[in-house]
Amino acid sequence: MLSGSGVNGRAAHVASVSRAVRVLEALAGHPQGIALGDLSARLGYGKASLSKILGTLERQGYVRQDPLTNQFQLSWRLLALAFGHAQRLGVPTIFLPILQGLADETDELVQLALVDGAQLLFVAKAEGQGQRIRMLPLVGMVAPLHATASGKVWLASLPPTEAREILHRQGLPRLAPKTITAPRRLMSELRQVRRQGYAIVDEELAEGGRAVAAPILNGGHVVGTVAVSGPTFRLPLAKLHRLAPRLQRAARDLEAIWPGQVTARDFGLGIRPGDGSSKGPSSQRRP
């Protein structure tokens, strides 16, 4: 009979399971393989006990030992297990807990955007539950790159010549009182975004609205962004800067589960052009 608080409470710590998980995590950081001695030094486990853990994982098919180098590495079984789980859940379901966790913590609108060719498309959202006045989501819309925090984050990751070409095709229309419409000023701001690792917009897409966004990387390239937005009276600029590290952690969490190629079709979305209309704070009574 099980005693104590049970699986959903503070369950008993199983040391052997904890050690096995640490071994798997360490192997994930060495895709080319790692020797037993090096792994032992890294984890602080004795070679004898570590050999038993590795042997068990190898027999279960989650670890393999290269017969030529004797180094240990993860097998494809673990990857297949993760991909199969992701496929059964579906991409939106995988991402939602991270987005909702950020929305609950900030009590603001959180949005996920994907890079799609030469444009950025908002594909998912999560919202905090405590506010009656909130920003209207942009899901299904193409981001005006010069006027959204997400757009700036992506542009800042591109070579300057490529960013200029994209902006030339899109144009720099004035969408709100503080929209940046001067190319030189925008390029200067993109350099700042590149240095700090996140972007902020201040009433550039909608009067009365602000946002902060961080990049999501895959294979060294920005494949998407995660952003928090809200009305100016709740999000002073100083608060947005304080939120940036939390947003960057959410981006890293999304990167950790990013399932290779992700497209708007994975979210069941078409594309609507973004024109900046109806994006300001909206008073909405929650049911």
Percent of residues in helical segments? 40-55%
| Radius of gyration (Å) | 23 Å
Poorly predicted parts: 1-11, 275-279, 283-287
CATH topology of the largest domain: Beta-Lactamase
Strand order of the largest sheet: 4-3-8-7-6
CA-to-CA gap between the ends?
Answer: 44 Å
CATH architecture of the largest domain: 2-Layer Sandwich
- Major β-sheet profile: 5 strands, antiparallel
What's the overall average pLDDT, rounded? 84
Helical segment count: 9
Top-tier CATH class of the largest domain: Alpha Beta
- Count of individual beta strands: 9
Number of domains: 2
Structural class: alpha+beta
The CATH homologous superfamily name of the largest domain equals: GAF domain
The best one-word shape is elongated
Task: Tell me the series of helices and strands, N- to C-terminal.
Answer: HHHEEHHEEEHHHEEEHE
% residues in beta strands: 15-25%
How would you portray this structure in words?
The chain folds into 2 domains: about 15-80, Winged helix-like DNA-binding domain superfamily/Winged helix DNA-binding domain (Arc Repressor Mutant, subunit A), CATH 1.10.10.10; about 90-285, GAF domain (Beta-Lactamase, 2-Layer Sandwich), CATH 3.30.450.40. The chain is built from 9 helices and 9 strands. The strands form 3 sheets. Strands 4-3-8-7-6 form a 5-stranded antiparallel beta sheet. Strands 1-2 form a two-stranded antiparallel sheet. A two-stranded antiparallel sheet has the order 5-9. The model is unreliable at about 1-10, about 275-280 and about 285 (pLDDT under 50). It has helices at about 15-30, 35-45, 45-60, 75-90, 90-105, 150-155, 160-170, 185-195, 235-255, and strands at about 65, 70-75, 110-115, 120-125, 135, 200, 210-220, 220-230, 280-285. With about 290 residues, the protein is an alpha+beta fold.
